[in-house]
Design brief:
Chain A: It comes from Streptomyces atroolivaceus. The complex is a heterodimer of chains A (119) and B (153). Chain A is mostly helical. Chain A contains 4 helices and no strands. The chains are: A mainly alpha (119), B mainly alpha (153). Chains A and B meet through helix 3 and helix 4 of A and helix 2 of B.
């Protein structure tokens, strides 16, 4: 798959995790700027989902199976928005922790996606 | 962290009964509980989709491992639901499930180490959840600490 995109998603996800972790450390809930950051990461994940589908349509196949690949792509796309929604109704530092955890989960999913696609 | 260390001194039943019970529907899924809801939700999805995919694709390869993953998914799903629902009954049910989850991780983890031949494919709980950064072991312990603490709120 597009390795540059996978790396970009993972790096921005980790940056988001650090940012929201810092907000939690300062006892702050997620704010508008954090949601813009989540949107950026989500757009990158959406781009990755689309690129993945296009590559499957062009006949390229992941090493570890198509079903697993698609499941991980969808999981990667939904991880940060889902955590964002949870933090919307949790206006404390714990909402920030949730988003940070969501971003870390996304970064882990990217590593797995890289393995699943292979070379 | 301070309050959670007092696990050795459980409140006596009489004392517990005297505390006001009007907060019947107290929130289990807010505050630190929100983070638990997130992780339990993620693991419900992870374990459920994993076992479904594996069972549909090739159930015969490692039936025991796949069934154990499905059981794990059900336990995770129930705990997520209890945390979101809140209230004393849900809290107790979640506590029982967290204990079952911890027992499951420890038993399956030991089992996979002692008898790898029984598991041609791994489960969510294999090797104490090593494939999932050991979160399957950490999660029930954190969950039980949170659920015990929620009683005193």
């Amino acid at each position: 798959m597009l390795d540059a995109l996978t790396v970009a998603v993972a790096v921005t996800a980790l940056a988001l995790a650090a940012w929201c972790g810092f907000a939690a450390y300062r006892d702050q809930p997620t704010k508008d700027w954090h949601f813009i950051g989540m949107a950026v990461v989500s757009v990158l994940a959406l781009a990755q989902l689309l690129v993945g589908i296009v590559q499957l349509a062009r006949g390229e196949r992941p090493d570890q199976g198509m079903t697993i690949f698609i499941a991980y792509l969808i999981g990667a796309f939904t991880a940060v928005p889902a955590a964002g929604f949870l933090s919307l109704s949790e206006r404390t530092r714990w909402g920030s922790v949730t988003v940070a955890a969501g971003a870390v989960v996304l970064a882990v999913l990217e590593v797995r996606l890289y393995d699943i696609w292979g070379n | 962290m301070r309050d959670t260390d007092r696990t050795g001194t459980p409140a006596s039943p009489a004392q517990e009964r005297n505390t006001p019970r009007q907060k019947q529907q107290f929130e289990l899924g807010s505050g630190p509980g929100r983070v638990l809801v997130w992780f339990y939700g993620v693991f419900t999805v992870a374990a459920a989709s994993r076992s479904i995919v594996e069972m549909v694709l090739d159930f015969g390869k490692a039936p025991l491992a796949y069934v154990l993953s499905a059981v794990a998914a059900v336990v995770y799903g129930f705990i997520t639901y209890s945390l979101v629902r809140g209230g004393e009954r849900a809290r107790r049910a979640a506590l029982v499930c967290c204990a079952a989850e911890l027992a499951g991780v420890l038993i399956v983890g030991t089992w996979t180490l002692l008898e790898p031949a029984a598991f041609p494919d791994s489960t969510v709980w294999s090797e104490f959840g090593m494939g999932y950064l050991f979160i399957p072991v950490i999660l029930p312990v954190t969950g039980m600490i949170w659920l015990r603490r929620a009683r005193n709120v």
